[in-house]
Design brief:
single chain; alpha/beta; Rossmann fold; NADP-dependent 3-hydroxy acid dehydrogenase YdfG
């Protein structure tokens, strides 16, 4: 198993992407700790993992509350002895409108929350990983400078901002043996809201791929598990492109 005896903390673990990663990590032997704000969603993911023979625990944690995040990860480390993988898949609330139609306060608030959440959770994990001289910080979404699509509103801007944050973490944490990797997806279309405005972006992702395919949640989990494992130990300070070639960043 790729992640046997590893500990993974997943913020947003009750969502589609977080659940996909959690399931893949657990299938490879990791003990996963799912953190989020909705108990029912967290327990649903945990039940699936346990039903498949994996190990999963849940906790209601607001990723915008630094004290709560730090208390939770300290508890995890007390139980397991380490935190080997930390991933925050909580992104800003997507406003799928032309930029000219989005109010400035809404735009700033959405991206601000995403960056705040990422900063809080990464700081908490890094505090332990630096002591361990090991660990993997995974980020999700990525930055693709070559491609843009109308109708994405604040979404890609937010991903770009998080990727900039990831690059800064990379140079600061690499000397302590901590790897930082972003999964560049170009969009996981089976997680897109089922609204008419998303038909264009959904088809654009497929059309931009030379394979005429889009990555699935299963693809996200499989690649994340590999990257987080020792098999992927040479991958750091970069993006891993899992977009079927739709992204060029």
């Amino acid at each position: 198993m790729l992640l046997e005896n590893k500990t993974a903390v997943i913020y947003g673990g009750g969502g589609s992407i977080g659940g996909a990663m959690a399931g893949a990590f657990a299938a490879e032997g990791a003990r996963v700790f799912l953190a989020g704000r909705t108990p029912a969603k967290l327990e649903a993911v945990a039940d699936r993992i346990r039903g498949a023979g994996g190990q999963a625990e849940t906790a209601v944690v607001d990723a915008l509350d630094a004290a709560a995040v730090n208390d939770h990860i300290d508890t995890v480390v007390e139980k397991t002895g380490s935190v080997d993988i930390s991933v925050n898949v909580i992104t800003q609330e997507g406003i799928f409108q032309p930029l000219a139609d989005i109010s400035t306060p809404d735009f700033v608030a959405a991206i601000g929350k995403a960056l705040t959440s990422q900063l809080i959770t990464t700081k908490a994990a890094a505090r332990h990983m630096v002591k361990q001289e090991s660990g993997v910080l995974l980020f999700f979404g990525g930055s693709d400078n070559a491609n843009t699509s109308p109708g994405l509103g604040n979404v890609q801007v937010g991903f770009d901002a998080v990727e900039s944050l990831r690059r800064q973490w990379a140079v600061e944490l690499a000397p302590h043996g901590v790897r930082t990797v972003t999964l560049l997806t170009g969009g996981i279309i089976d997680t897109f809201p089922d609204i008419p405005e998303m038909e264009g972006p959904r088809q654009s992702i497929i059309d931009n791929s030379p394979f005429k395919r889009a990555a699935t949640m299963s693809d996200v989990g499989s690649v994340a598990a590999f990257v987080a494992s020792e098999k992927g130990r040479s991958i750091t300070s970069t993006q891993v492109n899992i977009s079927f070639g739709a992204c060029y960043g």
